[in-house]
Design a protein that fits this description.
Helix content is about 35%, strand content about 10%. By secondary structure, the chain is of the alpha+beta class. It has one domain: Arc Repressor Mutant, subunit A (Orthogonal Bundle). The chain has a two-stranded antiparallel sheet. Helix 2 crosses helix 3 and helix 2 crosses helix 4. The longest helix has 13 residues. It is globular. It comes from Planotetraspora mira. This is HTH marR-type domain-containing protein. InterPro entries: ArsR-like_HTH (IPR011991), HTH_MarR-typ (IPR000835), WH-like_DNA-bd_sf (IPR036388), WH_DNA-bd_sf (IPR036390).
Length: about 130
């Protein structure tokens, strides 16, 4: 049997998908290589995760010059049925400490995260 310390180091609360999403929230123009290095996975794994996130409408991507720019849909709910009513913006604001509402001007496209707002954290939502 593994010791408690050995067992605790073999898993984390956040999946690689969540970590990729958080890295993109921190830097919407991050290169896949930089995301891979920050998380500790391969660039190919990051590409697969980005594709998963795009297909599930958590993320959109477009070119700005020669670079990719990513936008996150903070209103998209978590995938697991019991958390499906909770928007991923809650997770993003908790880990990136920025105000998601300051980015939105009302349109669906504008409600997507495009970067970090260094002002105060978003207040908690009431139930």
């Amino acid at each position: 049997m593994k010791s408690p310390d050995a067992r605790s180091s073999s898993w984390t609360f956040l999946t690689h998908h969540a970590r990729v999403l958080l890295e993109i929230a921190r830097d919407p123009e991050a290169r896949l290589r930089d995301i891979a290095n920050a998380i500790g996975i391969t660039e190919r794994a990051v590409q697969n995760i980005v594709n998963d996130l795009r297909e599930a409408d958590y993320l959109t991507c477009f070119k700005v010059g020669r670079r990719n720019h990513y936008e996150i849909n903070p209103d998209r709910g978590f995938r697991y049925p019991t958390e499906a009513d909770t928007p991923i913006g809650v997770l993003l604001s908790m880990f990136t400490k920025h105000d998601l509402s300051s980015i939105s001007t009302g349109s669906a496209a504008d409600s997507r995260i495009t970067g970090i707002d260094r002002r105060s954290p978003r207040p908690a939502r009431s139930p």
